[in-house]
């Protein structure tokens, strides 16, 4: 890690950043095993889901074909293991503390605790930990862009047309809301650990082009991020949260952040939001111009900026509470990642460099939001954005990254060239794939320099992809990591609704 402000020019890493020889770069005898993989029933299995980490409720898998840690509270999958396979498609849509939602070969499945809470008519003895999730008659799996939920509960789906489907545990069903719960075309819904709800939605505007040479009107995309205070239907229902109480008449928004539409140019020159992610106490947002904004309180360096560096007030759409991460200014960011139960955030740039900030979850969760040493009116250490600088074991050149995911206390990065997987951070539940051990991230606030030197290295998995394969998707959850390998298809690129 480079402790200095981010720079586009990277240096070669020292030994403490890339491990101490081969033992730090491999998992030894932990090459992915077939285990109790759940097949698709098709003739050719082209996709595989590998997982490691917390498996208390069987959310990663519950077969006997792979090594697990002790049963009960500390049940874990110790190393990257194939837990599912598919022929046509395989996507991880939602990862919660105890439940995972996947789309496999055109069908949706919930795996883990929630199936055991399904109605007796569906799961008579409450012993099945994997159940199919029926879609509404007019919806196909290919129409699903993504899923959303709290840390504890699967809440619903976002479709490619910008509409949503909400989940009912009592009926074990998905349904479109009878009325418009969320205005506009929804691109994403994120819920943090405080119960706050953040919605990214789009509108398409027609721009007058009377002075232009084309007869066709220009289109400009207008995006808005709305943050709602904690909703009763989310905070009061641990396993069966819903959006019932979300209505303009019932829930006043805490913040509205609308980027201005440049009516003098076409959509390509207009800045709008492309993605959002939730942390334990806030949110992070990315624009199409590669700029990153954060929202929330100042604990754990989770804002990546000074606490008082927020957008100025002025109108109803002023983005109250949001602020630009100035340390990344001038760097074109293409992806962001965070964990709804953690404080780490990550940004992946167009030149395939990764930047992280925020504590790694080892800090006291009761820390004051405004400690005396970092008052809201003064600058603090909240600007500590660090560049990930890893040297390739073979060439010694800086590693470029194509995918990234963030857990509550760990980070996973995927090499752009050969699909190598790098991990750093907490491993108390084997979430890094190296078994259960004490580890921390280089950004850990309570770890001293010597501890970070010994316990915060970036380590590389043994190869998990075969010839003609690549890493398609990587996701992290509470103490776990999930990686999809296989062929790239059009479906995996449809991450946001069509607008």
Automatic annotation (TrEMBL):
Entry's Gene3D superfamilies? Answer: Regulator of chromosome condensation 1/beta-lactamase-inhibitor protein II (2.130.10.30)
The Basic residues compositionally biased stretches are: 1-13
* Xref: SUPFAM superfamilies: RCC1/BLIP-II
**Residues annotated as region Disordered?**
1-40
- Spell out the molecular function terms from Gene Ontology: guanyl-nucleotide exchange factor activity
Ranges of Basic and acidic residues compositional bias?
Answer: 22-34
Please give the GO cellular component terms listed in this UniProt entry: cytoplasm
Q: What is this protein called?
A: Uncharacterized protein
Q: Organism source for this protein?
A: Drechslerella stenobrocha 248
């Amino acid at each position: 890690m480079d402790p200095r402000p981010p720079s586009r020019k990277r240096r070669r890493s020292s030994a403490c950043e890339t491990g101490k020889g081969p033992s730090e770069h491999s998992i030894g005898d932990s090459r992915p095993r077939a285990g109790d993989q759940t097949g698709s029933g098709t003739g050719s299995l082209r996709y595989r889901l590998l997982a490691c980490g917390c498996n208390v409720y069987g959310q990663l898998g519950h077969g006997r074909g792979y090594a697990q840690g002790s049963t009960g509270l500390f049940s874990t999958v110790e190393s990257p293991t194939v837990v599912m396979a598919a022929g046509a498609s395989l996507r991880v849509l939602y990862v919660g503390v105890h439940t995972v939602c996947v789309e496999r070969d055109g069908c949706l499945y919930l795996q883990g605790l929630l199936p055991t809470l399904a109605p007796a008519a569906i799961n008579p003895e409450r012993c099945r930990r994997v159940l199919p999730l029926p879609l509404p008659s007019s919806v196909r799996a290919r129409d699903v862009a993504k899923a959303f939920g709290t840390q504890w509960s699967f809440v619903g789906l976002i479709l490619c047309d910008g509409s949503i489907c909400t989940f009912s545990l009592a009926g074990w069903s998905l349904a479109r809301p009878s009325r418009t719960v969320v205005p506009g075309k929804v691109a994403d819904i994120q819920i943090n650990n405080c119960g706050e709800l953040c919605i990214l939605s789009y509108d398409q505007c027609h721009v007058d082009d009377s002075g232009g040479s084309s007869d066709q009107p220009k289109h400009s995309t207008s995006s808005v991020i709305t943050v709602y205070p904690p909703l009763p239907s989310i905070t009061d229902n641990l396993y069966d949260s819903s959006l019932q109480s979300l209505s303009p008449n019932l829930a006043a928004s805490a913040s509205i952040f609308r980027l201005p539409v440049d009516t003098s140019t076409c959509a390509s020159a207009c800045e709008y939001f492309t993605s959002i992610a939730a942390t334990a106490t806030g949110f992070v947002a990315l624009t199409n111009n590669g700029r990153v904004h954060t929202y929330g309180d100042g604990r754990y360096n989770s804002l990546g900026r000074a606490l008082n560096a927020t957008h100025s007030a002025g109108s109803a759409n002023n983005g109250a509470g949001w602020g630009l991460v100035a340390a990344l200014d001038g760097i074109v960011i293409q992806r962001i990642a965070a964990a709804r139960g953690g404080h780490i955030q990550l940004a992946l740039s167009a030149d395939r460099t990764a930047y992280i900030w925020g504590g790694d979850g080892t800090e006291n969760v009761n820390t004051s939001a405004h400690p005396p040493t970092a008052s809201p009116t003064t600058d603090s250490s909240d600007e500590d954005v660090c560049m990930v600088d890893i040297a390739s074991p073979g060439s010694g050149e800086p590693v470029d990254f194509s995918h990234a995911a963030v857990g509550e206390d760990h980070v996973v990065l995927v090499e752009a060239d050969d699909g190598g997987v790098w991990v750093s951070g907490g491993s108390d539940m084997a979430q890094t794939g190296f078994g259960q051990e004490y580890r921390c991230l280089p950004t850990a606030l309570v770890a001293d320099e010597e501890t970070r030197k010994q316990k915060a290295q970036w380590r590389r998995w043994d190869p998990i992809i075969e010839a003609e394969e690549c890493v398609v998707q990587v996701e992290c959850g509470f103490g776990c990591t999930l990686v999809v390998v296989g062929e790239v298809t059009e479906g995996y690129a449809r991450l946001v609704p069509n607008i």
